[in-house]
């Protein structure tokens, strides 16, 4: 099930115990609730995470006030979940609330303020508001390098976020330098299996692949997939994305690499069928990819059979 799956029952046990002994509005109970909500988000359980984080935020606003650090942490946690769900307008409102309060109470260069700057910038990037995002990301990165140092985890995440924006703008050389800086720093400070390190490795792999450097991208995709399997388990959606990314990279390297790529494509499809069902959009995407690869290599009958099985002609 992966390490995150193993942690969930422990978090629930801690929350249940504090609810019983301390009550629903005790600060320690709310801390346990927030931790479980963040964990659920990491596991991809966004609806459960949103519900729990809303409850915690409501209680913290009522008991601690809107400017308390714990309340601001809850605002940020809920905003991230809403962003993941595509509720970007609601997420932006919360990110701005947290940023405005932190600038007022902590100052513009405080690490928590810079985290809020970074969160808002990432959201603007996802909305296509690149110039606004770039200004915020450069502000955050420069301040983090000065106040936290170049190897601090928050600095490295900020560098990675700016790299993503540069990549979206087609400024690949600048993006590549920042991607490498972020990955090297995260390996050293967070370890090779930390979620941020795995994300960073996958991001660098994708950039290298986009530049045609498949041989350099492949070991990074392997590193990412190995870590995802260990941390999240073999059927987590992020793990399946890692399987697909590695398979696609290997397949693009030529027919001599096809046997391994085929095995990975089939692994992903089987897991999608098990996880989502045969008619789900993700399953059909996976089946379509495999069918296309098979047809390109002359296995037309099997490709047609796969297409019919998953209603790809519709």
From TrEMBL:
Matches recorded under InterPro entries: NLR-like, TPR-like_helical_dom_sf
Tree of life domain: Eukaryota
Name of the protein in question: Kinesin light chain
Organism: Pyrodinium bahamense
Source organism phylogeny: Eukaryota, Sar, Alveolata, Dinophyceae, Gonyaulacales
């Amino acid at each position: 099930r992966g390490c995150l799956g193993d942690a969930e029952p422990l978090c629930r046990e801690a929350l249940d115990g504090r609810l019983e002994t301390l009550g629903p509005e005790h600060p320690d109970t709310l801390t346990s609730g927030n931790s479980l909500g963040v964990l659920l988000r990491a596991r991809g359980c966004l609806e459960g995470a949103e519900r729990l984080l809303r409850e915690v935020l409501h209680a913290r606003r009522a008991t601690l006030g809107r400017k308390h650090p714990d309340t601001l942490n809850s605002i940020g946690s809920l905003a991230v979940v809403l962003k993941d769900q595509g509720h970007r307008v609601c997420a932006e409102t919360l990110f701005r609330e947290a940023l405005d309060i932190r600038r007022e109470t902590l100052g513009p260069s405080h690490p928590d303020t810079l985290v809020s700057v970074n969160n808002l910038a990432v959201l603007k990037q996802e909305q296509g508001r690149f110039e606004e995002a770039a200004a915020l990301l450069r502000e955050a990165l420069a301040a983090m390098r000065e106040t936290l140092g170049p190897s601090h985890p928050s600095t490295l995440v900020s560098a990675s976020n700016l790299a993503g924006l540069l990549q979206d703008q087609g400024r690949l050389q600048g993006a590549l330098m920042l991607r490498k800086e972020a990955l090297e720093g995260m390996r050293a400070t967070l370890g090779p299996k930390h979620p941020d390190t795995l994300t960073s490795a996958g991001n660098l792999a994708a950039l290298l692949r986009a530049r045609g450097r498949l041989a350099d991208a492949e070991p990074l995709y392997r590193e990412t997939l190995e870590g995802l399997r260990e941390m999240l388990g073999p059927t987590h959606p992020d793990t399946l994305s890692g399987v697909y990314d590695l398979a696609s990279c290997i397949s693009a390297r030529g027919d001599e690499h096809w046997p391994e790529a085929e095995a990975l494509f089939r692994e992903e499809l089987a897991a999608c069928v098990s996880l989502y069902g045969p008619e789900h959009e993700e399953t059909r995407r996976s089946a379509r990819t495999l069918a296309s690869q098979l047809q390109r290599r002359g296995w037309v009958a099997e490709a047609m059979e796969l297409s019919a099985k998953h209603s790809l002609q519709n």
